[in-house]
Here is the input.
Amino acid sequence: MVLLEKYHFFRYNANYEGDLMFIDTHCHLSKKDYEDINKVIQANKEAGVPLIVISGCNKEDMEETLQLANQYQEVYATIGYHPEEAEMITKEDLKSLEEKLSCQKVIGIGEIGLDYHYRKDNKNKQQELFQNQLELAIKYHLPVVIHSRDATEDTINILKKYKVKGIMHCFSGSIETAKIYIKLGFYLGIGGVVTFKNSNLKKTLEEIPLEKIVLETDSPYLAPEPYRGTQNSSKNIPIIASTIAAVKKVSLEEVEKITSYNAKTLFNL
Here is the structure.
């Protein structure tokens, strides 16, 4: 009964202020999306999300991502070139990325990977960019955040060649795929999709231990129910966590404790 009460409370009250401290392991924070960054971060804290990891995944966003990470104590960063950038990234851009990895607030490389949803004609360039960045992750002993859309087989085959650890960002695949990624050393990044009525992700989560899950929003995208279709933010992490708690039949405190430990362990926080 207590679990259900907390579940409904978090679904409809994002302004929670209490003892739970969640971590959003993947979101985007930019002035083009949010008018007042200070208010966003304050709202996160009031909702029980005092720490966020923002992603800069193209040349334009990367600079702002680093600036925000350096400006705010609560903000860490992952940087890397998204597969949609494959046509535009040069050797000089990769060198620039490597130089930026020395920033103390950079804790991983991502989001990187493969995306065949809109384009399949540049697979070779996507795979080359992906592998170049995996090599950087190995060189600098950094975890990676992997984007894989309509490219599961190629993503798995490439990851098998590299001894890296990280997060499968925005995971929504099958139990079988989840187990493969976990065996390769990855956590599953679970976001707002798990709250959608038509999502099959709940069935997958029933078979996956909390020890292999981290929380994310991918904000400003993919807001959870009941806010689906609106601008997302890290303050909605407790809603996602509540859904996971209900699926796993555990307390919200257990979801917070284990997923936060997973994130801290992976990113060495």
In short: Residues 123-139 form the longest helix (17 residues). The chain has one domain: 2-267.
